[in-house]
Structures are given as C-alpha cells and as structure tokens.
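A note from the maintainers: we've had questions about how concatenated examples are separated. There is no special marker in the raw files; a new sequence line simply starts the next protein. For clarity in this README we add a label.
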Amino acid sequence: MTDDTSTTAAAVRMWPALSFRDAEAAMAWLRAVGFTEHATFRDDDGTVVHAEWLWPEGGGIMFGADTTGIVRNAGGSAIYLVTADPDGAFARAVEAGATVQRELRDEGYGGRGGSVLDAEGNHWSFGSYQPGA
C-alpha cells in the first residue's frame, strides 16, 4: 500500500457502493470506526444522494440514502477492511453500536480479524490479513 491510496480519493480505483436507510446514523458510525469523509452530496431536502468516504489505510466506499433508488442494498452488503490495528477498529465499531458476529481471532491463513454487523445489518470484517502481501 502506498501513501497515495491511503490519503487521496483520486488514487482509489475501486469503490464498493452501499445504501443506508439512515444515512446520518451510518455516517456517524463510519466516522467512529475511522472512515474519513471525502465528499457528501445532498438534495434540497438534505437527503444524502451520494457520498464518498475513505478508509485511511487504503480504499473507499460510496453510499447514499436507500430512498434514492440508485443502489438498494441497505443491510445487504459485506466489506472486508484491511487494517494494521484490527483490535482497535473492531473495538471502535462495537463501541459505536455494531453487533459482534465473529470475535477477533488469529487466523490460520495469517493475520487477525473479526466481524460485526452495523445498525442496518451490513457485515463488516476488520483484519490484518492482506491478500498478496
């Protein structure tokens, strides 16, 4: 991983897309976990129609309110986040309201990881295993 992919949206080349029934609550949770806001666009009513948030260790997600109709997968997504500190990311996610699905453990294939569900049911895994590393 280079510094470019960890700090600039222009360097990210793959953006998983999600929708949230409550985008405001989701943004608070994402911020608590460690995501940083790159851009959030709203319509005249304040509904989040498109947002781009970065994972500081590389990558990003796009999302919007489930009511926009562009992506309708609220609660149905799964994302794996590579992090040098899976224990910290996992703890922040749980502290911000996530439900533990798989406790942190050392994996037989390398690394350490665990999984949670966010408030809408999306599955988030945090791990130090980096494929190809």
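[label: protein 2]
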Amino acid sequence: MKIISGNEAVALAVKLARVGVVGIYPITPQTSIIEKLAEMKANGELDAEIIRVESEHAAMASTFGAAIAGVRAFTATSSQGLLYMHEMTWWVAGSRVPVVMVVATRAVGAPWNIWDENTDFMSERDSGWLMAFASNPQEALDLTLQAFRISEDERVYLPMMVGMDGFILSHMKTNVNIPSQDDVDLFLPSRKQPFVLDSESPVGMGNIFPPIEYMKLRHSIHEAILHSEEVIRKVGIEYQKITGINNYSTLNVKYKLDDADYAVVLMGAWAGDAMEAIDELRKQGLSVGLYRIRYIRPWSEEEITLALKDKKAILVIDRATSMGRGGPLYLELKSTLHHEQMCGVISGLGGVLLNKGDFKEIISRFVERAKQGNAKGITWYYPKGGEKIELKSPRYVEE
C-alpha cells in the first residue's frame, strides 16, 4: 500500500499492464500521468515506447497505430484535448481495436476553466467506447488495469476509457493497494486481437464501406457493448480473486440502498461527501441511500432497474450538462426507469465545490418534495452565496 494520487495510480496501472506504446500530449490535469510514465521510462522501470506528439489528435492517432499493429497501447487526456481527439475516438471504436485511455475530467471552454466537470467525458457516450468512472485513486488503478483485460476480450474488442474527477482524484493522495507484478501477470494475459497490421503480410483497413456493411458494423459495436456487461462482471470477480482488491462483481455500487425509501444517484468522487451526508441524514430519520454509477457504457438496465425500482423517489445529481435538456446521467436514468418521482440536480460545474452540508441540503429538499409528490424536473444548485453572483449574458447586455 502506498499514498499516491489518482494520476500516479493510473501510471502504475499502465506500467503493471506492460503497455508497449504510450502516445502523450500534456493537458491539465492529466499531465502528471504522462510525466510519471516518462520518468518510469527514463529510470528503466517501464519497457514501453513513449511517442511525444504535437496534439491530442495525434496522441490518439499514434496510440491507435500502435494498437492496430498488435501492441498494448495507452493514452490520457482531458477537456479540450478529448474534444480535439474526438474524430479519432470514433475511428478507433469503428476499427474494433482495443485501446485504453484515462480522462481526467475538466470543464470545457469557452471560457477557460481548468477545474473539474464531467461534461467532456459524458460527451463521448455515443462514440462506441466502453466507459467506466472512478470514485477514488484505488478505483482509478483497478479500473485502468481491468480496462485492458475487458477491451481485449474476444467478446468485446472495443476501446475503453476510464474517467476520474480532475484535481479531486487526479491530484488527491490516498492509500492505494498496489497489486504485485506477478498478480497482474496472472490477471492480464498477453494482448490478442483478430486483425493486426503487419508489413510482412499487408492488408487494407479502414476503406470505404457500402451502406449495408457499414450498418452491420455499427450493429456489431452495439451488440459488443451489450455483451460486455457479463465480461465486466467476470473480470471483476477474477481481479478480486487474484489481487484481493475490492468488489467488482457488479457494474455499479450501492451504499445503504436496499432498505432505503429514497435513492440518490450520482457518479465520481463526490460520492464520498454524499455518503457522509446520508449517514447524518439517516440519524435524523431520513430513509435515504446511494446508488453510484460506475459504468456509463455499458449501461446496465437490469442492475439499475433492480436497484431502484422499489424506491419512492429518485434524485439524480449531475456534474455535467446536456444543454437545454438537463444532466446526462439524469437523462440516462429517465430513459431506463420512467419513475413518476424522479428529479435531477445539476451542480459542481467548472469546479464549483459541494461539501457534505450542501449534499445534506440537496437531499433534504428532495425528500420534502417527494413527500409532497413533487419530486420532478431539473434544478440547478449553487452552494451558499453562489446564487447572488450576477452573470451578464449577451442578451442582458443588449437590453
């Protein structure tokens, strides 16, 4: 066990996975992942080729090139960087090539803002990648290691990204259990994939597809994401058997949920604050529990329905927006459950901090609304004092 940050935990996972190529381009707050990997390479601890490129688009392109040649490959990014490589994320998924990427989430400009928000990560939901989201540095390490095994499974053969809250996890240091290299070698076999570019046996890839074949390819990606649920559960159980670390037999995580009347649903690092708030609210007599979404893709309809179907009301808290509609997590839950009493709260954008007291206030308001049969719709929550800050929008200026 070591006290390390989320970024250091990811770098260690990449090293333990015996990655062969890392495509790197720095962007805050993921930079220290690639700095740590470069340091490992310089010290002789990492036997990988590190490719320094001129942009995030090139970082994903170089990583893709290595992966399609049969090499285990990794990259990391954030915010505008993820948007800049957006074209390549689709190309990698469409090529059915296993690649692992970590996204240290950050607000998207304009205006410039380097702090945490999940909108960058959530904007990739339709790209064809598997998507997990960590809640602490331990999960950042575990999910990164598992991502290689899952994405390289013959029932999947898709890229996978692991998200973690920028600065809150990327730079926060906690105790992390680090599996031994021998344990990881038992857990993670050598890379395999059905198609490999080989100069000795040249083939064409990525050529134009007639309409029906293109549609069948998209259908195959959809089916592979659905089938990955079972793979993820089996990989999680095996990871625990070999490393003794945590319980990954389910895609998502419950906290004091089974006997609760009311459920709070969210993802990421602020689950810790929410759990502390729930502990105190339960002492005050509120029957509330937490359901933490760990996998966005695949989206486990069965697990989610079983966990939440009997709750009197459901509160979904998003650190991201789908402009003009609400929080993306809320919209995903809404399409699954069709619950009469479900409401969404958007907060924490651009690094706005919420503490235990804020969660107690949000949850208490939600329960009161639910008791009145009015737990519906979307609201925006500002921590104390934040609502008093006036923003002069372009429309306001014109008036």
